[in-house]
Design a protein that fits this description.
binds zinc ion, five-stranded mixed beta sheet, 3 domains, 10 helices, Trna Endonuclease, Chain: A, domain 1, 19 strands, about 30% helix
Length: about 375
């Protein structure tokens, strides 16, 4: 639906200014992907707008998952799909995949989205895996005594109290980083471990054979099959993380799509709804309203604002809505967001009579808008 409105790759604010050129191929890619998805499941009511083909059902189910995935990434803190390692089973998995009902180790599903132009792929890390069992990702490092091969090895430091020059082994006195540690030599208090203590030497000691050595023998342990291997004999495996290809684009597409579907919904309730519609307030100022709906049978109007903000809807967003709302004086104002809302915002919205819909999910947003409009109808004695 971005294609319909021809939105640019720009932050949400600038959606207020319609712009009919600028269609990039990447944009169309993700748009068609989002667009086809939207008609697949929850929107039976308005599915006559875009007819759905039955034989496409499986494909659109997959796209439904992908849209969910995009939304979940958009709401995550770091906007990255990262792998986790299950050390017991030795497998790599992407927890976000389970959240959308996909198998958590289905890397080819993610790679498919890279091919579709939805995701970008980056190297996350290089793992050294067992040369005999390269499918097992969980190898961990083990230290051994080079003399007796015992694992009963400990790491030792020398600590030096800079002020008095007292030097001790860490086993004897830890110069604990906790406050109020006293130097055993000069009896002065150590308040800042980092600044007051130097670490002049570090070595290992084997508790079985008492050997002291600078370098422990390092082996990698194949956890699943319980054997060690030399790090140099291991294979290198690259793991990948994924990010949204056009995170701004996709959120803008989402917005454009939500707008489109809400307009259809409102028109079905005997409203005349317009996108980015200029409305004159009582002060004479013109406010461009993301969705403005005027009843065909009464004087009622509905203002709908759509705002998304990565770190959550805050008071400044609310203020930007209050100004046009109060100036236009509409009874019915909705704020729709896929973002979270900060503390106190829900109360603020309620105080000013703004109906707040904060939902990550398209279909839930639509059904809440529908609830709102049909409640309004019931209250105002209208019939659909
Ligand atoms: Zn192995
Ligand atoms: Zn030893
Ligand atoms: Zn001292």
């Amino acid at each position: 639906m971005c294609v319909v409105f021809g939105k640019k790759h720009v932050p949400e604010k600038s959606l207020l200014k319609p712009n009919s050129e600028n269609k990039s191929s990447g944009l169309q890619n993700i748009t068609s992907f989002l667009k086809r998805d939207s008609v697949s499941e929850p929107l039976d009511k308005i599915s006559d707008v875009v007819p759905e083909c039955k034989h496409e059902h499986d494909a659109s189910k997959t796209r439904g998952k992908s849209v969910q995935l995009v939304q979940k990434v958009q709401q995550s803190d770091d906007l990255i799909i990262k792998p986790l390692l299950d050390y017991n089973d030795g497998v790599l998995f992407y927890p976000i995949l389970s959240e959308i009902g996909e198998s958590p180790d289905n890397v080819s599903y993610l790679d498919g989205l890279v091919d579709d132009g939805v995701l970008d792929k980056q190297i996350y890390e290089k793992l050294i895996v067992c040369p005999i069992h390269p499918k097992m990702f969980s190898s961990s490092m083990r230290l051994y005594c080079p003399k007796c091969q015992s694992m009963n090895v400990q790491k030792l430091n020398l600590f030096e109290h800079k002020k008095c020059g007292y030097i001790t082994e860490s086993v004897n006195f830890a110069f604990s980083a906790d406050a109020n540690s006293m130097c055993p030599s000069c009896q002065k208090e150590i308040t800042n471990f980092e600044k007051e203590i130097r670490v002049p030497a570090m070595w290992y000691q084997c508790d079985d054979c008492r050997e002291k050595f600078d370098n422990a023998t390092i082996k990698l342990h194949c956890r699943k099959y319980g054997h060690d291997f030399d790090p140099n004999s291991g294979q290198f495996i690259t793991t990948y993380s994924y990010t949204l290809k056009h995170s701004e684009t996709s959120i803008n597409c989402d917005v454009a799509q939500i707008k489109d579907e809400i307009v259809n919904l409102l028109n079905g309730f005997n409203f005349n709804a317009e996108i980015n519609y200029p409305v004159k307030g009582r002060t004479g100022n013109i406010h461009e309203i993301p969705i403005y709906a005027k009843s065909n049978i009464s004087d009622a109007s509905i203002l709908i604002f759509i705002k998304n903000q990565a770190d959550g809807i805050d008071e400044s967003v609310m203020n930007s809505i209050l100004v046009p709302k109060l100036d236009i004086g509409s009874e019915n104002t909705l704020l729709i967001t896929v973002s979270s809302v900060k503390d106190g915002i829900a109360r603020l919205a309620q105080h000013y009579g703004i109906f707040l819909i904060s939902e990550p999910d398209f279909s839930k947003i639509l059904s809440k808008v529908e609830d709102f409009v049909s409640n309004w109808y019931t209250k105002n004695g209208g019939n659909k």
